[in-house]
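Schema walkthrough. Field components (list of strings):
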Amino acid sequence: MNFFNFQKNIFLGIGIMTGTSCDAIDISLIEIHDIAEPVINLISFQSYKFSALYSEKINEIIAKESKVKEISQLNYYLSQVFAEYIEQFIKDTGIAKSKIDFISVHGQTLWHNPKAEMFLDKYVSSSFQSLNLSALAKLTGLPVVGDFRSGDIALKGQGAPLVPIFDYYLFRNPDAPIIALNLGGIANLTYLPKNADLSDVIAFDCGPANTLIDFYANKFFGQNFDTNGLNARNGKLDNKLLQILLSDEYFELEPPKSTGREKFNYQFIDNALQKLNYKVNELDLMRTLTELTAKSIEISIRKFAEPQSRVIVSGGGSKNLFLMERLKHNLFDSEFVGIEKYGITSQSKESVAFAFLGWLFLNEKNGNIPNATGASHSTILGVLAI
Amino acid sequence: MNFFNFQKNIFLGIGIMTGTSCDAIDISLIEIHDIAEPVINLISFQSYKFSALYSEKINEIIAKESKVKEISQLNYYLSQVFAEYIEQFIKDTGIAKSKIDFISVHGQTLWHNPKAEMFLDKYVSSSFQSLNLSALAKLTGLPVVGDFRSGDIALKGQGAPLVPIFDYYLFRNPDAPIIALNLGGIANLTYLPKNADLSDVIAFDCGPANTLIDFYANKFFGQNFDTNGLNARNGKLDNKLLQILLSDEYFELEPPKSTGREKFNYQFIDNALQKLNYKVNELDLMRTLTELTAKSIEISIRKFAEPQSRVIVSGGGSKNLFLMERLKHNLFDSEFVGIEKYGITSQSKESVAFAFLGWLFLNEKNGNIPNATGASHSTILGVLAI
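Field assembly_structure (string):
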């Protein structure tokens, strides 16, 4: 049956993203006109830093054994925190709340493993985004759409990446191949061949983008990230370590594929370091981790996409000058442009894309690309709290 | 804005309940006609036993520290398990799946504590029902409504009881006071004064019904429950122990109030037993736990409702002959009738009520009774996966 029957074709939606690095909440307000096809305008974007207390707690819950009680509390705690940031955002933006049609939210990933594992008597793959959608709807007084990954996972997909459908609507080009490259905690790309239709889209997670760099910038220097890539620039590439890291099977895996911090974490690096019979100094490790990101992206593009593309870069990593230098050096045959050319800021892309996914849900349009996620078929993604 | 616009006033909905004792899944199919007000017909009911493996695992996850991974997997595992039982139910009922409008599901409670506790920098109360609604919608191909407790908790309510609004629609009587008493793992009641309107409804959890009896029937005798109350009948009441158990502050607390197995569990009994300077034998403990249920319900009714009511009994505990004898003895001034008089079986009540809550959501009607839950106001309860 048809569910929704809205008597309008302009929607105002808020999109909320908190990435794997869980240091900030990104909030976008977009306007979507739907005439022949959806046209998206970014009206406002803010990124609010989380307190260290919050970030530490999340990392603790991810890393350690947690009680059900803590996870239950965290779901509601995040709804309260998110509601406060949304109120702040609405105030900062100066828009009347009554004009906003919906909130669309990713939630804080605590677990994501699309690889089916035996659990009791069944093979189960799963993803867990902490947040209580109903509580967020009540606290904000606005409808909330969320849990976009589960529907795809239930259909044997990876539940990721979800941004490709947004890339497809926004970037596809009749005359040139396009790669939309996002450098968040994890690097992901969407490859849109010239004049692509939906079944041509290839999209996957390349590997780590900032997550390892951020972790060690914090561990070694107490910095939230490696500003402009300065630490890496002052280090020397350890090629032996790089080769060990790049020998991980993930980089060879055919798309569709997705990954996260449960794989590319401290342990991953530590295992590699232990294979060396010498110590790697701090700056050299920063340099090598930055090359790991730049090289694994290059490998991904040469192997599974088309280097002679226009590469539209977004995400916090696009601010890392040294990383961008290395990327452009490795992919000398690509044309790099910032996402700003398309009316979206680099940092806002994922939150805008999630607002768009909320709009797709409310219009009962499919949100996954089976080619990208591996799902058995295309389906509506999300859950609605009113 | 209005969300739903269904061109019909007859709905077929499936309601699913798995109680705190987590030994079975109850599934009802109901038809709801909405002319002047909703009229409910129970078409089919089945209760399917869970495997011991499943029950043990749930109990392990509740009792012990669990990893995020396990909780994430359990959410999807339950969606798979529930989807299989729903298919079986549809087959057993012989109805065409295409005729069913929605599934409404409670989920498996892993945590419920509406009492606000400090969590990081905020007071948080929370409830956690394991299940992934989106996965269940994809696996069944049917819309799913769930997570009914969170909206109420977000509005400072207890998130329970939720059945009172169903009791109100089904049982209210212009000429007599009514008490709807449900004997599940926990005992709860709805008091509907003569000719009540919604603001007159009083409802709360009385305390344990079967949860402790079942636990010790299993521990002592390897039985899933105390059949007909035979073990209890063969024991002697330990009045000293009973008084210690009844001295718990919960029984004195003014409604609204709700509770669960996180309070009335093995530990609760063990603490009381340790205050005695003698051992209580197995049958005497069964007898005393049965009286704890019967007596705490009596206290609840005399203190917070009206004993000279018609008491409509439902739930598995209504099959415990000895418990019913004790209840009738204690509440000699009440009139007891089985819920079967109202076209619903004793066992099906909660699953029927949850199907009704799903219907309320899809009709954008409020589902909580602030009087019963303590919420700041009445609101739509639930979340929809399509």
